[in-house]
Structures
1.
Amino acid sequence: MTINIDRHAPMRICFFGDSFVNGTGDDSCLGWVGRACEASRRGGHDLTCYNLGIRRDTSADIRLRWRREAEARLPPEYDGRLVFSFGANDGCLREDGSSVRIPHAEAVANAEAIIASAASWRPTLMVGPLPVCDEAVDRRTAELSKAFGSLCASLGVPYLEVFHLAARSETWAGEVMAGDGAHPNERGYAIIAEAFKQWEAWQAWAGYAAIADA
């Protein structure tokens, strides 16, 4: 069966997350979100993209703000949709080094509250957290990525795992080390953007060709 995509139907999409959603470190100020939305618009889709990524935001921060910010941008009469990506900051240590900012179980609970509520309101996707090239933090983030994937599967929400894609990339690591020590530059974000653009769940929303469902 073929899914026909109406390229001319207006769509508004809110992207919620942390600095990786924001595109911090990218000299072009596009990040993976901007690149994906640019490609969709150039493909003829009437897409409005709201980048609501905030540096240092944890799952707890996003849980507090996402609904209010989304409602301001997605009136009921519009086709509004949601994409979430967070978790890297949860596993970072507090400034005093005493503990992680958000313990694993609490981060998963936050994600469940966010994604379950979002999916009951609007079409929702989730992209997994990304590495910061710190061994201890990345180990915790990898565990969260796996847990988030299981959570989304149980909720019936499409999930794109990108942690290992970035973690295995010499380009990602090289740009992180050449930059601020946590974020890549243009080529690193382009890797995530390409994976996102090719993701079937995104293609079904704002893809560049009809998707054949075998």
Note: Residues 209-214 have pLDDT under 50 and may be disordered.
2.
Amino acid sequence: MPRTRRLWGWAFAIGFGNTTLTQVGISVGTDRAGAAVASVLLNSSPFFVALLARFWLHEPITRLRAIGLVIGFAGVLLVVFADPGKIAHGSRLAIGFALALLGALGWAGGGLAMRVLTQREPDLDVAGHTAAQFLAGGIPLIPLVLLDGSTTTWSNPTLIAQLAYLVVGGQVLVYLGFNAALARWPSTRVYAWTFLVPVVAVLIDAAQGKLPGPAATVGIVVVIAGVAIVNHPRAEALAAPEVARL
């Protein structure tokens, strides 16, 4: 865990973006606007990151990497909107849209802050600081839980199993891997991998017998192609001279 007030300050700032805003934006935004809209907005984070990192971290956006981002996001749109029944309407859509967008901005801002911190602190204990971020980001969520008014049957073994999976797989492993990658790769390259989230969801459905339609299948191929372009060695090599000039 962080041993200085300065590092705890970073933990509260990053945790508020990565945990507080993102979790509220994703969960409530999905409930209000539907999974399709929330997924598209969350996957807009790489574009926010690309723009902010260009000015904040002086990370160049090469033409090849920009093309890969656009192609990957186009594939996400094909995958997500292949099932239009997941889109809400009316006031619920407006509220959900705003919350999901807020979650995307929190996700982008938190990741960029982590990138800045790892550059300033090369020997940072990523696992310990990630734990501190969860703690700091979870505190603002406590009043929401107390004011919610609903009840939970904690004795339900299915609920416990699902919660364990969400905590270990959906939080701990995700954030540890993500923060470790941000310490090694440019922000835009790391965030491009989030385009694969809806692809994995479709593949899980396919493994359970719900095969994707033509549009979703094409979208999967397009997403993978976009992520591959973003991570192509040539895109990284083209960025190196520009970083050196900065």
Note: Residues 5-245 form one domain.
